[in-house]
Structure formats: structure tokens, C-alpha cells
Amino acid sequence: MARFYANENFPLPAVVELRRLGHDVLTVQETGKANRAWPDEEVLSFAAADRRSLLTFNRRHFVRLHAIQPSHAGIIACAVDADVLRLAGRIHAAILPYDDLAGRLLRVNRPAG
């Protein structure tokens, strides 16, 4: 299963569900780096150094970073969804086709309707 680093605003219930699905998820809060106005470049570098794909709602900034800094362990750019269990399930389904997420940008959107 995947190794993830959950960005600061990523919901804990989604983290818990991803863990239940077998993924190794580390949160910004667990690293003691919460509430520090940490630059996105450093967040991505930290995740990459630990070989973790980044889970984020900050789509615009990390899509831009992917374009200029494609050497990372993966970016999962998610749309905000109040149904966090459904969000975790969509993330799980989105990564299943890949053996390795390194250098990949995956967008996980809310279902239409």
C-alpha cells in the first residue's frame, strides 16, 4: 500500500480511513510541523525525503509545484468533500493502478451530481 504525508488541512477522519484501508499515513501534526506557515516547497520536499506522496486540498499550489519540481514522491491533489470516508475511498481507488506514485500528480475530484 501507499505511504502518504497528509498536509495540514487534510481531515483526520480521512487519514484514519486510509489507514484502515492499509495505507501508511503520517500527518503534519504528527511531525510537529503544524501551525508554522510552512512553505509548500518545504512540505513537498519533506514528503519526498521520507518517500511519501503528499495528500492535499491545496490543489492550485501543488499542481504548480509539480510542474516546476517534478522529482517528488507523488502528489494527490484532492477536492474538498464533506464525506471524508468517500474521499478516502476515492483516493484509495485512484492509486490502485500504480505500483509507484513517484513523480505523479493525481487529481481526486468529487463525483458529479
Structure description:
There is one protein chain. Helix content is 36%, strand content 18%. By secondary structure, it is an alpha/beta fold. The protein has a single domain (3-108), classed as 3-Layer(aba) Sandwich (Rossmann fold). Helix 1 (12-20) links the parallel strand 1 and strand 2 (24-27). Helix 1 (12-20) crosses helix 4. The longest helix is centred in the C-terminal third of the chain and has 12 residues, at 84-95. The N and C termini lie far apart (30 Å).
Topology:
Blueprint: E1 3-6, H1 12-20, E2 24-27, H2 40-49, E3 53-56, H3 59-68, E4 75-78, H4 84-95, E5 105-108
Parallel strand pairs: 1-2, 1-3, 3-4, 4-5
Please summarize what this structure is.
36% of the residues lie in helices and 18% in strands. It is built from four helices and five strands, in the order βαβαβαβαβ.
List keywords for this structure.
36% helix, five-stranded parallel sheet, Rossmann fold, alpha/beta, 113 residues, single chain, globular
CATH architecture: 3-Layer(aba) Sandwich
Q: How many strand units?
A: 5
The largest β sheet comes out as: 5 strands, parallel
CATH fold category name: Rossmann fold
Beta percentage is 15-25%
Tell the overall outline: globular
The number of helical segments is 4
Mean pLDDT value: 93
- CATH class reads Alpha Beta
What order do the strands of the largest sheet run in, or round the barrel if closed? 2-1-3-4-5
Structural class: alpha/beta
Can you tell me the residue ranges where pLDDT is under 50 for at least 5 consecutive residues?
Answer: none
Number of domains: 1
Radius of gyration over C-alpha positions, nearest whole angstrom: 13 Å
